[in-house]
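Sharing a chain and its predicted structure for anyone who wants a worked example. Both blocks are below, sequence first, tokens second.
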Amino acid sequence: MKTKELSKSGQGQSVEKECFGKKLDVLRQLSESSGDKVPLSDLLVSLFYSLYNTSARVQQAASQAGHLFRCGRKRKESETTNQFWRTYSGKTTDVLQTPQRRLVYESSDKSLTLQNAGRFSVNRFILFNDALIHAQFSSHHVYPLATLWVEAITDITASSNQYGIKVTTPEESFTLLASSPQEKAKWLRAINQAVEVVLTGEGSGAGVPAVSRTASYVFCKDLRLKDASYSGRWLSGKPHGKGTMKWPDGRTFTGTFKQGLEDGYGDCKMPNKLLDKSDRYQGHWRDGKMHGFGTYKYATGQVYEGSFHDNIRQGHGMLSSGKLIGSSSSVFVGQWLQDKKMGYGVFDDITRGDKYMGLWVDDQRQGNGVVVTQFGLYYEGAFSNNKMMGTGLLVSDDDTAFKGEFSDDWTPNGKGTLSMSNGDFIEGLFSGEWTSGLKITGTYIKPNLYEPDKESTCVLEVGRLAVPPEQKWRAVFSECWSRLGCEAPGRPEESRRAWEHIAVTLTTGRRDSPELLSRSQSRVLEKLEVIPQHTGPVTAARYDVIRRYLTKACETPLHPLGWLLETLVTVYRMTYIGVGSNRRLLQQAVEEIKSYLRRIFQLVRLLFPDLPDEGVVIHTDPKGSSETNQQGWLVSSSTLLLPVLLPRLYPPLFTLYALDKEREEEVYWDCVLRLNKQADLGLLAFLGVQQKFWPVSVSVLGEKQQVLPSTKDACFASAVETLQQISTTFTPSDKLQVIQRTFEELTQEVHALLEGNFLFSMDDLFPLFLYVVLRARMRNLAAEVSLIEDLMDPSLQNGELGHMFITLKACCFQIQQEKTT
């Protein structure tokens, strides 16, 4: 064996010991191994294990060698830096010399100069491991490497052999000229490698640091940012991305920057030295200014939530002042222009207990408006210079009304008509304040006795001097059109642009606020981001897809339509809750909802330009989806939008209906209570129901029981329970469906009783249905009927559902007029 022969010589022994050491015996055993000695596999395992340990020691030795090399390099850098400071002749040595600073490269041989420098100027550039220093005779500039960007410039001038390097810093940019291409390459490589080491802790060898990076910097020259410190993302010398800026006066901005300016969402705190508190703005910025939607909390306690434009309030917004228990509590929601109330708005003076709903100019009530108070007073008419001035209508809680001229708040002054609740009225000249007494010169008229054809119409004309519904909340709808990338209705060619804006808005919202979204909400957003096919004829299946899409969109605040509905719900509740729960506002509240539907439907037509006109019926394809309505779909704003809008507006709206029908409800409820004291058969007889419709037995818990003269609340119980569900629904269509199911339940019970088919006549049906209505004991039936009548789709009025509704309405009226013996 060669190994055995080599081991016999002195030179071979030294080589063996140097290479293998104690592992030499293993190799000898391996070379001399035979079948009857140690197994060859065990010897190989032992050999590989020994080689592994040898490799580990080799790596350790290499690491130690590298460490020695780095120590030597650092020592050399230290000696070079020390030698540099000994020969440096600048006047700022003490300021620049720091213990950790090491020299990398310097231009004492004029290998690098400043472009456009004066003939007699002295410019020296020194590259350290943490900064690039531009030293002059008596001054210097320090540029930290973490916020330094350099790039090559080829041929400053066509006739020059000089080569340029562009240097970008947070506050200035300048060009350095190298004496040769070689010097240019050396400086570029040296600076980039030094920057990369500062950013990453070690050089990658490529010598090209990231253009976008995270770093901190204190500004010293920029007028807007002087002495401010910034920590965050940078891009080519400018704050770009998420970061935090702090000013010496305590102002702090945390958010998104773009090219050095606040842009995107941000949180800014601004100290108010007079109040020793801070203003705070949380919202959107553009080009360094508050722009878009945001919330501004003033040090005074006021809070503004709405739109900004170039640092001022403009667009739709809500300003809250004070607290509910404070001495100056108020809330304004409406339109702003140039930081002032302008256009339509609602001002709720919580302290005084009154609410204004009308037009504004330069922070003052100007134009038509409505005022309601906690004492039941109602005024509608003209305002000027923040006062009731001009023609107006004033109505008190007891229905006394004055229509005429006003010169101040609650102060009639001039011609007018005063109407009393009994129908009498006075025409003439009026003066004085309403609450303290009026001076009247005029004629007292009792139309019922002397002039039956002449009567006052003050109360009947409530709402005519109020702001028309189409003029309300224009800023809200304008903002929605803007979010869709359009200026105004009537431009269907912008449909594609609107869908693109929707996709961008949803994607941005899902990316910027993932923590605020649940998994199901994220899935909904992903579906809404997909632009549905919206060209070609609208079939029943496609109409159903559109309906489903709009439902999801309106329930998603990030979607422009969802934001619109959320804002409309806020302003509606702000208007008609609290002092706004005045029964004389009912018709205005109803008309406002109808206006919402019309204007939102314009937005829907923008997104789906092929949608048929309102009133068109899209018939169902027999081969289409089984989920669509078998009779087809009626295209209308109410069927599309009322199901998602009305449930949110229902509480304040139904409160107004209940207040408006309060007196009728008292009479109705008194009659319901009295009539329900009777047993079933006695009540059926009292109502004139034919005996053939009287149930002989009823099912109770699955067992049949005979109807006795004392039996109560057992007959037609299924129909009664069905009708009671009307108070658990919101939209007129849902309430009509409940009425229809009630008729079906009633018809089934009668057919089962008569054991055969039977066709109801109205004479038979009305008293029987009246019995069901009485037993249902619905507390606000008059309000329910009125709501259905006002908001039901006109196409349903003459159909089967319309006739059923008229029957219910007639029952309600009959109960109010019923006389019991």
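Comments welcome. The chain has five domains: 1-87, 91-210, 370-467, 469-658, 666-817.
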